[in-house]
Structure formats: C-alpha cells, structure tokens
Amino acid sequence: MWILRLKTVLLQPKRIVLYMAERKKIIFVVNPNSGTTNKQKILNLLETHLNQEKFDAEIQTTEYMGHAAEIARSAANLGVDIVCAIGGDGTVNEIARAIAHSDTALAIIPAGSGNGLARHLHIPVDALGAIKVINECNLSAMDYGLINDHPFFCTCGMGFDAFISMKFAQAGKRGPLTYMENVLKNGLRYNPDTYDIYIDDKEQSEYKAFLISCANASQYGNNAYIAPEASVRDGLMDVTIIEPFTVLDAPQIAIQLFNGKIATNSRIKTFRCKKLHVHRSRSGAIHFDGDPAETGTDIDIEIVHNGLKCLSPQTEGMLDMGQNIQNFLAEHFNDMFQRSESILQDNIRRTQNIHKKNVEIIKKLAKKP
C-alpha cells in the first residue's frame, strides 16, 4: 500500500514535490496450539505497539498442521514483505521453509516451549520486546540446513535427541519439564548406535555415539546450548558428537549444556563443516528443529548459505549462561525434584522386581535334580 505525503518545497516558485512512503505488508501467523502463551494478549500488544506508519498488518490463525507453511507460501507468491511466526520452533520452521529463497522475510514473536531460533537471534521472549524488534525492521540474511531434504533453521540430529523428540511429540504435555522428564526416564537405558561419518565428502571416521547434533544456531531451545559457538551467518554447521557416558557423567553434561561449556567435556567431539554424510547400522529417527521423522541408514546434512531473510537484532549467539541456569533452576527446581524423585522410585521398583524374579529363577534351578 502506498501513501502520498505532500510537502511544499520553496526551491522554485509554485513547485510541489511529492514524497512517497511505502508501508511494508506484514502477515502475523498465529499458532493457537503452541506453548502456553496467551495469544490474545500478544494480539492486543500488536494493536497498540506495532508501528502503524511502517506496517500494513494482517493476522491469520492456523487451523491444522502445515497450514502455517501454506499461508507463508501464498504470502511469498504475492510479494508480501514479512511473515511473522507467533508460535514455537515448529511454526517458525513451517514458515521459514515456505519463504526461503524469496524476497519475503521472517519475523518471530516467540510463543512456544523452546523458542530456540528466537533466543539465538536475541529476539526477546516477551512479546513486547519482540514487537520492538519488528518495529526496528533490521533485515539480514541467515543460513539454514537440510537433513535428508528436511529444512532446519536451528538444529537437527540423530540418536538420543531424535529419539526424545519422537517421545516428546507423542506426549500429551509440552514444555521444558516434559522434555526433561523424557530425558530422565530414557537417557540411561538408551542403546547408542555406531556411525560412519564423512565430512565434506572427504574424511571418514567411525563413532559409537549417544547422539550427533548438527547446529545452524547455537541451541535446542530454553538456552540449552548444544553448539555455543554456532552462527547462522557463517555458512557452516557446528557438529557435536556425544559419546556414550555413565550415570556419573550425566549431571556434568546437563550442567555444561546450560552453561555453554559442553565442548570442554571429554565425552564430546566437535567440528565444523558444510556437508556431512552419516551411515548408521540401523534405521531410526532423525529430528529437524525438534520435529521427528523416521528415516533409513543413510543421512545427508548440508548448510545453505544466506538462504533466508529475517528480522532480528544484529547480535546473535550465547548469552550469560551463569544467570540463565540460575533462573531456570529457580523457576523449575521444585517440579524437577518431584519428577526426578518419581522417576527414581520407578527405577528402584523396577530393579527390585527384576531382582525378585532372578531370585525365583535361581531357587527353581536349585530345586532341579
């Protein structure tokens, strides 16, 4: 939409100069099912705080899985300037993959359970702060990745994190504590796989790994930093391999995941590359931005440089992790403790039942002549 503004300039008698200002067309795509954030409050803030002189806004609500991608693709075809995701990483992924390699830019108002890409891009998780970022309209290009042709903008991977993504998708509840509960229940019983890895079509290495994560951005979400030094603008992915570990190693790895020191752990291997080919011994799950999918034994991952336009602050990456982990623990400690205690008791009962059955078997064998 164009607005004509008239201004008289006294350079020459009776000469009138027309100044033409363009309002950018922006579509806000609301996912009503993501996270626990009240979406109506966000819409109310938009009405009062979005710069109406800069933007011609429209709001659309998703009605089914894949609808956000349809809205975004249509917007890109119509030449809409910006599509803003109001939702979590799944909504962001849907919209971003639909507008990649177009003139339409991505904006984010975080409203999910993890908000990994928004956090990496230093987009505030509070709606008012995110709206201010949109009003600043700082446009830049960023990379994205492909894992077996599935686009990802934050992280992808295989092994335990993909397995947990599958469990998390099947859970009735969302949020970081549900994710952590699945990790506690399944982490020490997960059977690591063996992987042959080809880096940039050259090197081959064999790893037995708990998980392999390929990161375009630095974190999974909730400031859990799997690749603290990753950048969405360097044309490279940061690969993190976590080797099998014991129950004694688990707390240290968990803390290092949140304080940005995971690369210092002896169980962790890291490197950067543009392409990665992985062959594993069995089929299984992969994930892209937390969305799981079943795939075969061969997996190809690559980075597409500057494939997406986005609105964000100029800075990116890891923030103050000491304060982050303190805030996270303060907010969730009681619930974490209760869930951990419940899981511990379940494991104790399971171990006692196994021991009881073993004793019964031994007694039966002892009675045989």
Residue windows where pLDDT falls under 50 for at least 5 positions: 1-20
Helical element count?
A: 9
Spatial extent as radius of gyration: 24 Å
Class from helix and strand fractions? alpha+beta
Approximately how much beta-strand content do the residues carry? 25-35%
Mean pLDDT: 83
Cα-to-Cα separation, first versus last residue: 94 Å
Biggest sheet overview = 10 strands, mixed
Helix content: 25-40%
Shape: globular
- Write down the secondary-structure element order: EEEHEHEHEHHEEEHHEEEEHEEEEEH
Total number of beta strands:
18
Give the helix/strand layout.
Elements: E1 2-8, E2 16-22, E3 24-30, H1 39-49, E4 55-61, H2 67-77, E5 82-87, H3 89-99, E6 105-110, H4 116-120, H5 127-136, E7 139-147, E8 150-152, E9 155-159, H6 160-170, H7 176-186, E10 193-199, E11 203-209, E12 211-215, E13 237-242, H8 250-259, E14 268-273, E15 275-280, E16 284-288, E17 291-295, E18 298-311, H9 321-367
Parallel strand pairs: 3-4, 3-5, 5-6, 6-18
Antiparallel strand pairs: 1-2, 7-8, 7-18, 9-12, 9-16, 10-11, 10-15, 12-13, 13-14, 15-18, 16-17
Helix pairs in contact: 1-5, 2-3, 6-7, 7-9
Structural notes for this entry:
The chain has 369 residues and is an alpha+beta fold. Helix content is 34%, strand content 32%. It contains nine helices and 18 strands. The strands form three sheets. Strands 3, 4, 5, 6, 7, 8, 10, 11, 15 and 18 form a ten-stranded mixed beta sheet that branches. The chain has a six-stranded antiparallel beta sheet with strand order 14-13-12-9-16-17. Helix 1 packs parallel to helix 5. The termini are far apart.
